[in-house]
Amino acid sequence: MFVELSYEYAWLVPSCPLVSSGLTGLVSFFFPKAAKGLRRSCAAFSIISLTVSLITSLVFFWEQSISHSTQQYLWSRILRDDISLKIGFPVDPLTLIMSVLVTTVGILVMIYSDSYMCHDQGYIRFFTYLSLFTASMLGLVFSPNLIQIYVFWELVGMCSYSLIGFWFTRPSAANACQKAFVTNRIGDFGLLLGILGAYWITGSFEIRELCDRFSELVTSGSINPILANIIALLLFLGPVAKSAQFPLHVWLPDAMEGPTPISALIHAATMVAAGIFFVARIFDLIESLPFSMGVISWIGATTAFLGSTLALTQRDLKKGLAYSTMSQLGYMVLALGIGAYRSALFHLITHAYSKASLFPGSGSVIHSMEKVVGYSPIKSQNMLLMGGLRKYMPITGTTFFSGTLSMCGIPPLACFWSKDEIIAESWSNSSSLGWITSITAGFTAFYMFRIYLLTFEGNLRSSDAESSSMDAFQLAESDIPLWGETQNESTGLGVAEAYEATDPVNENLISRESNKADSKISAHRNSIKPKESDFIMLLPLIVLAIPTSLAGFIGVNAFQKETGPDSLSEWLIPLIMPRTDSENLVELLINSIGSVSFSLVGIFISYTIYGSNSFWGKTLFNKIKDLNKNIFNLVGRSIQSWSLNRGYIDYYYKICLIDTTLLSSRPVSSFDQWIIDGIINGTGVLSLFSGEGARYGGGGRISYYSFGLITGVIFLIALAIYFVIGGVA
């Protein structure tokens, strides 16, 4: 009775943060002066509200893991014979796993944000948006039908738009949120068409009923396969945009313009995973369509590989992690496309906690570097101005290192287990997919270690950036920009000077720094060293390091001598058949040698190039380069150009979409301005002159009327005489 009664209170999970968002928003709107003194109270209320949601989710999760049952509490919203729409809250393993994930990461990010955003004037507004997002995301997770999912899907997108553009006075942030909004509208429109098409075929919006009917119609041949695949791919178009899959991935790197806590919660752990959640939710519908499954798997593989190549030489710390997120989401989509449902969810969990650890770590670094290099994101997030931060920020460096190893797929950290599963499933499905996932794993290890080495190892380079000597960057003895060149080729400036010269935010600052006062400020800033963040920011990093290290063990049968299902398989029993042939720990490690080898090669190359103490590695590197320096330089510059220019995809979008739209809109605008508006304006001008003429003709004097009448009569008589004489002749 307790279990049955508790499921009726599933509405508490999304409602608590919704109430928190509403109250904090109302307080800040109607009582702005009083709200300034209640800043910390509003944050505490938001954290407590989400904690209630977490506790409720954990209770449901514990009960469900024991009973292995699925429940849902529904009530009718539209009462008509020809349409049935019920709203409510389902309680099943997928819902509860996502709920626990969202609430745990959300609480830690809120605690982190309390310190990170404490000096921001929009502190309360930030927590209002943050609570509204968590409520929307939890509402999406607890949705039993496509209409309810679509409503919360749009709310999540709205919150993302608001938080990306949180610092909307900065042009780059305003442009980034608009780019994210427009790109996601493309996917959401496709999702809406898919929902309508699925309802037209099945007559239901309820996900379980809809998937069962759709699969039956496909199996029996009652539906045209082309139409069925079109509907499935339209439904998939929503996750393509939301989860930053190729070709609608272009918004995610720019979304890093938002505050770093948003990057951790929305654009790494939760919102971008909403697309993965949705595909998993309608997996039974898509699974019956081999063509759609193939398209999904190859889109995921393309995204994984593309994201890893675009991250190779990124200089912006957060954008490097953003491309990493894009690549790992590609792994999940690929896994769903080849039918590896469990592996996709496994990687979703491990990646969410690992990346939720890395982004706050990057925020801690940026927060510390701002006091050293200034508050321009182009400089405070530029890894070429960092280095040696581990000795200044040991806790941040340690937690970031654990997250880096996890993302590289190094055992026994979390992402190793899930990524290795996906790579193994890819090889069993297709050798092409197997090669793509394995090579991508090597690239991932390379750029993640590059990020760590440039940020935390070596010496701090910000104070030496004005020097043009190669000693200012002890990254490599090569002059290839890919390997961390100090000089800007076109200007000959040092890295700090070159970035400052290209920073539109600081154009006025450059001209001012020529005077003595700013020179003193610059000298004083160079004397400042980074320091570790405060305890409130470090606490979430330490806590998130635990699942980053241990979360992978939920998906392996590591501590059982007898074969049997692992913990994750047991949790998913109502949705999938449990694995009875789980490998033991030794077998898993032996079978993972191939994937780990690719990762170790990537780490080795990265350390050889960027490691500050890798003398023998640099010697080997230089010998290889000397074999054919021209080709080596050409390859290096090509890789850097590809990465820094985002694969030229944005450039082609600008030419093919933006410029084409503007070009075609000009004749349409001219036609509207001169023809359509000309007719309307001409009618108005004619009416104006007619009215003016009538006004002067109608002065109210009888003599004027008589004159007009006589003139008209004379004209008519003359006209009649003309026609009579003409007729007689």
Automatic annotation (TrEMBL):
Residues 81-127 form the NADH-Ubiquinone oxidoreductase (complex I) chain 5 N-terminal domain. It is a multi-pass membrane protein. It catalyses: a plastoquinone + NADPH + (n+1) H(+)(in) = a plastoquinol + NADP(+) + n H(+)(out); a plastoquinone + NADH + (n+1) H(+)(in) = a plastoquinol + NAD(+) + n H(+)(out). The keyword Lyase does not apply. Signal peptide: none annotated. Residues 450-672 form the NADH:ubiquinone/plastoquinone oxidoreductase chloroplast chain 5 C-terminal domain. One of its GO terms (molecular function) is NADH dehydrogenase activity. It is found in: Plastid, Chloroplast thylakoid membrane. GO terms for biological process: ATP synthesis coupled electron transport; electron transport coupled proton transport. The chain crosses the membrane at residues 12-31, 43-62, 94-112, 124-143, 149-169, 181-202, 222-241, 262-283, 289-312, 333-353, 433-453, 535-559, 588-610, 704-725. PANTHER family: NADH-UBIQUINONE OXIDOREDUCTASE CHAIN 5. NDH is composed of at least 16 different subunits, 5 of which are encoded in the nucleus. This is NAD(P)H-quinone oxidoreductase subunit 5, chloroplastic.
